[in-house]
């Protein structure tokens, strides 16, 4: 039964992500954009026979599925269907739902049934289009194969050892480090002057640091907005901000989403502000 299921759903070709007990694969027949299948790796016909460890692993996998689909396609709702009428192996159809039309892979995707329950009719797409979807989801999901996604931000103007220390320590406390580099507009808004080094060059410098896995522009100081986009597990900042009213509020808001605010020791004796003053002397 299990081998028949693997063959029918083409798991070898369409596998996106594999956890200890489950496989998330792309559905060959796309009901909506990014439709997939989560299947148990051992032969089981009844949900009641899925053990505690497998259910726990399923919860972890679903987080990967939802974070990946959110970042890639920004779905509105998501449906999990456990039918097992014809294919009796334990599995769930994963159907992202969209209120709006989406253009992807030279195709206009319309969720005709939204907001009603989905009808499992497939959309007419080519194998090339299917594999475009697969490649994008697989690439994005690798970010979540690691245990912890970390996030830190900064201007990183006149890059110095204090910046390097923060990035090194942040990476030591997570598996995948995303760094938000403040845009020139953001810096001007809250520091009331432009950085010495323009945004694109500062971004390239941070991207070259071995501790950094991904760099994104910080277009707003709102950390909750950043979390809604990036879904990090922890945010890192210098301990000079610890206890401030702003970060007390940030801690409270992010805690509601299970995000840890981690303060790292600030490097004394050096800052971009001090360097700027020395340059201007």
Descriptive overview:
The chain folds into two domains: 2-144, HIT-like (HIT family, subunit A); 149-280, Rossmann fold (3-Layer(aba) Sandwich). A hairpin with a 2-residue loop joins strand 6 and strand 7. The longest helix has 22 residues, at 52-73. The protein has 281 residues and is of the alpha/beta class. The radius of gyration is 23 Å and the shape is elongated. Helix 3 (52-73) crosses helix 4 (127-141). The strands form three sheets. It has a five-stranded antiparallel sheet. A five-stranded parallel sheet has the order 10-9-8-11-12. Helix content is 37%, strand content 21%. The chain has helices spanning 2-8, 11-14, 52-73, 127-141, 161-172, 184-191, 199-207, 223-230, 245-255, 272-280; strands at 15-18, 22-26, 36-40, 77-81, 91-97, 102-104, 107-109, 149-154, 176-182, 214-218, 234-238, 260-264.
CATH superfamily of the largest domain: HIT-like
Q: Indicate the proportion of strand residues.
A: 15-25%
User: What's the arrangement of strands in the largest beta sheet?
Assistant: 1-2-3-5-4
Helix tally equals 10
Low-confidence stretches: none
Number of domains: 2
Taking all Cα atoms into account, the compactness measure Rg is: 23 Å
CATH topology of the largest domain: HIT family, subunit A
> H/E element string?
HHEEEHEEEEHEHEHHEHEHEH
Mean pLDDT: 92
Which architecture of the largest domain would the CATH scheme give at its second level? 2-Layer Sandwich
């Amino acid at each position: 039964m299990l081998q028949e299921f693997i063959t029918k759903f083409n798991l070898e070709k369409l596998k996106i992500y594999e956890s200890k007990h489950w496989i998330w694969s792309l559905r060959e027949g796309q009901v909506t954009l990014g439709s997939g299948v989560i299947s148990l790796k051992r032969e089981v016909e009844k949900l009641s026979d899925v053990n505690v460890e497998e259910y726990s692993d399923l919860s972890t996998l679903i987080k990967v599925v939802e974070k990946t689909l959110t970042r890639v396609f920004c779905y509105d709702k998501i449906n999990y269907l456990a039918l097992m009428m014809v294919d009796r192996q334990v599995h769930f159809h994963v159907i992202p739902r969209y209120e709006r039309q989406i253009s992807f892979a030279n195709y206009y995707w319309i969720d005709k049934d939204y907001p009603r329950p989905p009808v499992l009719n497939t959309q007419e797409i080519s194998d090339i289009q299917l594999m475009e979807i697969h490649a994008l989801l697989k690439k994005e999901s690798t970010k979540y194969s690691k245990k912890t996604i970390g996030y830190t931000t900064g201007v990183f103007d006149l890059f110095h050892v204090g910046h390097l220390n923060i990035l090194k320590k942040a990476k030591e406390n997570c598996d995948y480090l995303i760094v938000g580099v403040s845009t020139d507009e953001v810096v001007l808004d809250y520091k009331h002057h432009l950085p010495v080094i323009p945004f694109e060059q500062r971004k390239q410098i941070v991207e070259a640091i071995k501790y950094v896995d991904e760099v994104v522009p910080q277009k707003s100081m709102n950390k909750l907005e950043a979390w809604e986009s990036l879904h990090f597990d922890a945010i890192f900042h210098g301990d000079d901000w610890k206890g401030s009213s702003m970060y007390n509020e940030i801690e409270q808001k992010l805690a509601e989403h299970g995000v840890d605010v981690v303060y790292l020791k600030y490097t004394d004796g050096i800052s971009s502000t001090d360097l700027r003053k020395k340059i201007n002397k």
